[in-house]
Every structure is written in C-alpha cells, then in structure tokens.
Amino acid sequence: METAEASSFSGIKVESGNSYSIYWFVWERDGFYPWPDWEPIILIFCDSDLRFVCVRRHFIWKVYEAPDLAEPVTAFFEGRHHAPLIKTRTNARDFERKISRGTVPISLDAVLEEEVPDFARDPRHLVDRFKISAIPAALLHRISRQKAVDEKVSELLEDCRE
Asked: Whole-angstrom Cα distance, residue 68 to residue 35?
C-alpha cells in the first residue's frame, strides 16, 4: 500500500472455503467515503492449482488467470480508495515502478477476528447501511450492477468445473 495509507490500515481477514480463499484487506475509511474499506482478493483453485485471482477495483471485478500472473502473487493497493492491482507478467515493469515510489508491505499476520460486514460482501448494502445520499450517480449505477463477492466466487468455481 502507499505510505500515506498505512496509518489507516486495520488488518486482514482470511476466509477459506472448498477450492477458494478470500483475503480481505481492511482500512478505516474508503477515501473520502464514510465507511470502512474492505477490499477482497479472491484466489480460486482447480484441482489444488491456482486458476484465478480476482479483485474488485473501484467496484468492478477484474479476473486474472494463473498463467498471466507473476510469481509470487503480489498485490498493490493504489490511492486513498485502495484499488487493488495484481502483478502480472505483462504489467510487471509498471507494477515495480509504482511500488518503488514508497510503499508499506502488508504482513499477512495482521489478522482481524471480526466478521465481514454485509456491505463488504455486497456493496449494494452501502446505501442503506450508511444512509448516504451524496454518492455520485455513476458510482451507484456501477455498484448496483456488480455481483456480490459470494456470487463472484460461485461463478469462478463454476468456471473450474467446465
């Protein structure tokens, strides 16, 4: 993560299921929005091999296939909204340039025990939960069209079965 965001980092919540893991990276705030920021990184395994890494970048899902990934799997959270970027073979040089500007590594030992809130699993709950009327219409539209985390996991696991 960027150095300026290190002080608001809360920790990591790890969930494991049959053929998947979700690493939730948590910050006290999502930029200027008044809610905590829970950023999921989903790892999908097919026959015990990593098949996909999936992130939700500014409420839009981005799926990376295992052959495209640089090893080890590495993420960088950009800006005040902590947009996750995964290092791939094609973006490796740009990725390294971004992290060379001053970053803080995240220890996977910074484990949170709290439950993942409903608005993190499904951002459509943000509006009701935080009674926000000042969310830009374009962002509301984007949020309303995206799959919840559990739906995305199911979709990716289905891709493994095909």
From this structure: 33
Torsion 121-127-128-131 (CA) sign = positive
pLDDT in tens, the chain (162 residues): 777 788 888 889 999 999 999 999 999 988 888 889 999 999 999 999 999 999 999 999 999 999 999 989 999 999 899 999 999 999 999 998 888 776 667 777 667 778 899 999 998 888 778 766 667 778 788 888 889 999 999 999 998 887
Angle, alpha carbons 26-107-54 (nearest 5°): 55
Q: Determine contact, residues 20/42, Cβ cutoff 8 Å.
A: yes
User: For the chain, what is the domain count?
Assistant: 1
pTM: 0.90
Taken in order 98, 100, 102, 108, the sign of the CA dihedral is positive
Task: Enter the tokens of residue 13.
Answer: 């919540």
**Cα–Cα distance measured from residue 143 to residue 99, given in angstroms and rounded to the nearest whole number:** 28
